[in-house]
From TrEMBL:
Source lineage: Bacteria, Bacillati, Actinomycetota, Actinomycetes, Kitasatosporales
Signal peptide: none
Source organism per UniProt: Streptomyces muensis
A Pfam family hit: LOR
TM spans (from-to): none
Descriptive protein name: LURP-one-related family protein
Family indicated by similarity: Belongs to the LOR family.
Length: 166
């Protein structure tokens, strides 16, 4: 499954749609401005919240938390020793599963893997539209909403680290 994400052009607090490869709106990323911590909601086309994404308060390193139905689903933070490429670790709530996100996050060219197996690829290579990137969910049994939330989180964390957050 391939999804198209139009980058936020105006900064935090903006809403943007995620479309399938046929141009149908599938998810809405709803940025919640005027909060103490960075907060997003991933909604379906009927406006139902599928996933809550928020910045973890009082963490030593920037950390984002993904929740579904009020229950923790995953925690995302940058790996400490990743000098050449952006590297993020996604710890799922089960405590034993970790996803690895690596690549050029700010260029929107990175992969999400589990135990060396590719789950999703985020890339601008396939697209000719400026400020748009694709999220290609490779495995049929993968959770597209979770992988899109992971992409939103790591891009947000990388932009904050670089100092682009408005």
């Amino acid at each position: 499954m391939r999804f198209l994400v139009r980058d936020r052009l105006l900064g935090f607090g903006d809403d943007y749609w995620i479309e399938d490869d046929r141009g149908n709106k599938v998810f809405l990323v709803d940025g919640k401005a005027m909060r103490l911590r960075d907060t997003f909601e991933l909604k379906d086309t009927q406006g139902r919240v599928l996933i809550d994404i928020h910045q973890k308060m009082l963490a030593l390193r920037d950390t984002m938390v993904i929740e579904r139905d009020g229950h923790p689903l995953a925690t995302i933070r940058r790996k400490r020793l990743s000098l050449l490429r952006n590297h993020y670790r996604v710890s799922l709530a089960d405590g034993s599963t970790e996803l690895d996100v690596s690549g050029r996050i700010l260029d929107r060219e990175f992969a999400v893997e589990y135990d060396g197996e590719l789950l999703a690829v985020v890339s601008r290579r396939w697209l000719h539209v400026r400020e748009t990137y694709g999220v290609d969910v490779v495995r049929d049994d993968a959770d597209p909403a979770l992988l899109i939330a992971v992409a939103v989180c790591v891009i947000h964390l990388a932009e904050r680290e670089r100092g682009d957050d408005d």
